[in-house]
Amino acid sequence: MAKYKAIFRDLVWGYIDTTGTFVIQPGFREVGDFHDGLASFQILKTVFLFFRKSQWGFIDKQGRVAIPPAYDLAGNFSNGLAPVRLGKRSGYIDNADSIVIKTQFEYARGFAEGVALVRLNGKYGYIDRSGNFVIDPQFEDARDFSEGLAMIRKGDKWGYINQAGEIVIEPQFEDASFFRGGKAQVILQEETIYIDKQGKVIEN
Question: Which segment of 45-59, 115-129, 171-185 scores lowest on mean pLDDT?
Fold first, then answer.
């Protein structure tokens, strides 16, 4: 399937294909990348006199509006679901614009490796596609899963958990990154190092 790239021109966004040809003409204030055949876009909508509010919807690869702009924020689709925000709460919609996980979270990410990162009552945890917590909110900060592990922060240190919510690499790093090819870059005592999935140093 052809890949589309967002391009900023004349103060608005459009999309080009791999040949550099515009396939969706510039005309959007903000856009996201295409996932599951849809991309988010933002418009400014006048709600009272001169007051304008930004709202997000989704377009298809022909540039047609697939989901009308009605959300305060919208993320990428993944396996048929996308995070959206209404007011101060986030939930998830399907590609038919039905809310399938109600807007209840303070923050919500797209699904990665079958689960999605959310924040509730100031703590981060992970939910499944039904909206049920598979890892309870308990972390000060966290990131998406990658290669079966996710970064989590307890206090001011980062470590890693598996999808059972078990800490497999103790929080000890000042900073951390996603696992790629079985290794991750971390900062320990102000030194940048690489670790494997057991937390062993494999490269300086």
Answer: 45-59
Q: Which burial class, exposed, middle or buried, applies to 1 when counting CB atoms under 10 A from its CB (0-12, 13-18, 19+)?
A: exposed
pTM for the whole structure:
0.91
Could you read off the pLDDT of 107-155 as tens digits, one per residue? 999 999 999 999 999 999 999 999 999 999 999 999 999 999 999 999 9
C-alpha angle 14-17-19 in degrees, rounded to nearest 5: 125
- State the DSSP string of 21-89: -EEEEEEESEE---BTTBEEEEEEEEEETTEEEEEEEEE-TTS-EEEEEEESEE---BTTEEEEEETTE
CATH class of 143-204: mainly beta
pLDDT in tens, 24-36: 999 999 999 999 9
Token pair 């304008």: residue: 52
C-alpha 28/C-alpha 189 separation (Å) is 45
Q: Are 55 and 45 in contact, with CB atoms under 8 Å apart?
A: yes
Domain locations along the chain: 143-204
